[in-house]
């Protein structure tokens, strides 16, 4: 059988189409001769998910998105067909979520449940959802930021007014002067500390002498018979008390001297008589003293 030129061209064209088809699928990440398991995921919103987007489980790529179909008969759900590695076991109760990063890359993550007994069979449908991630958090902050903008504007206006007040510049000038004074004080303190450092050895020597004297004094105190001394003090106090009692008593000699008016009057009269006698002696000494230059003649 001879192939005409037209048949050869047609075969080459068909072969080129097949190579192009499988090459595009390979570049999209789809296996050409695949025996992967097919599952379905139901979403309310796929947020930019498209065919050939990767699917990850615990950060590891386990498959790709095969087809996306809009379910017009079931409340507008979007059914995503995914092909997963046949060795992957999906526990029952697992779910899927769509993640998008700041660069706009979209991927699907499988959230595997902890159910070692039951599994999702190929062809079953898995529940899917959205994970807004960082962009969702930023979007949630936008209303709060919008509410804060008027307050921020008011605060900035007050700050500008405050900074424009001449008193601020004057205060800053005063702060500069205070800083200079602090520097001067610090230098003086350094000089004082240097002088103190020089005086410390002599002070320590004197302190050692004082401690030595203190130790001697303490030793002397320790050698004192405190009990005997206190006994003598008690005896002295008892004698003083007895003497005081005798002074306060009217029966003793000292009591008569202090409290008997007759003794006082007698002593007073005696002193007056002695005074009169001395006056008479001074006035008439010859009555009391006989004095002769040549001596007394014998009879």
Automatic annotation (TrEMBL):
Domain Mce/MlaD residue range list: 37-101
Span of the signal peptide: none
Pfam families attached to this UniProt entry: MlaD
Membrane-spanning intervals of the chain: 7-27
Superkingdom, taxonomy of origin: Bacteria
Alphabetical UniProt keywords: Membrane, Transmembrane, Transmembrane helix
PANTHER family for the chain: INTERMEMBRANE PHOSPHOLIPID TRANSPORT SYSTEM BINDING PROTEIN MLAD, INTERMEMBRANE PHOSPHOLIPID TRANSPORT SYSTEM BINDING PROTEIN MLAD-RELATED
Protein name: Mammalian cell entry protein
């Amino acid at each position: 059988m001879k192939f005409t030129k037209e048949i050869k061209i047609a075969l080459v064209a068909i072969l080129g189409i097949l190579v192009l088809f499988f090459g595009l699928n390979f570049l999209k990440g789809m296996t050409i001769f695949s025996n992967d398991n097919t599952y379905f995921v139901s979403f309310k919103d796929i947020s930019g998910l498209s065919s050939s987007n990767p699917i990850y489980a615990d950060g590891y790529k386990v498959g790709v998105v095969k087809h996306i179909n809009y379910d017009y008969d079931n409340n507008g759900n979007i059914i995503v067909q995914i092909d997963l590695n046949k060795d992957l076991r999906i526990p029952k109760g697992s779910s899927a979520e769509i993640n998008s990063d700041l660069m706009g890359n979209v991927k699907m993550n499988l959230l595997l449940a902890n159910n070692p007994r039951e599994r999702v069979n190929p062809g079953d449908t898995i529940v899917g959802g959205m994970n807004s991630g960082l962009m969702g958090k930023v979007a949630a902050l936008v209303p709060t930021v919008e509410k804060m903008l008027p307050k921020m504007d008011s605060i900035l206006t007050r700050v500008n007014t405050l900074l424009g007040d001449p008193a601020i510049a004057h205060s800053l000038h005063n702060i500069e002067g205070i800083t200079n004074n602090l520097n001067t004080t610090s230098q003086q303190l350094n000089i004082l500390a240097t002088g103190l450092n020089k005086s410390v050895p002599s002070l320590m020597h004197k302190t050692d002498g004082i401690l030595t004297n203190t130790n001697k004094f303490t030793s002397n105190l320790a050698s004192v018979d405190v009990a005997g001394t206190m006994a003598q003090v008690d005896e002295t106090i008892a004698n003083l008390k007895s003497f005081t009692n005798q002074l306060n008593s009217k029966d003793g000699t000292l009591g008569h001297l202090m409290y008997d008016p007759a003794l006082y009057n007698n002593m007073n009269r005696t002193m007056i008589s002695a005074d009169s006698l001395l006056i008479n002696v001074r006035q008439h000494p010859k009555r009391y003293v006989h004095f002769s230059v040549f001596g007394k003649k014998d009879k």
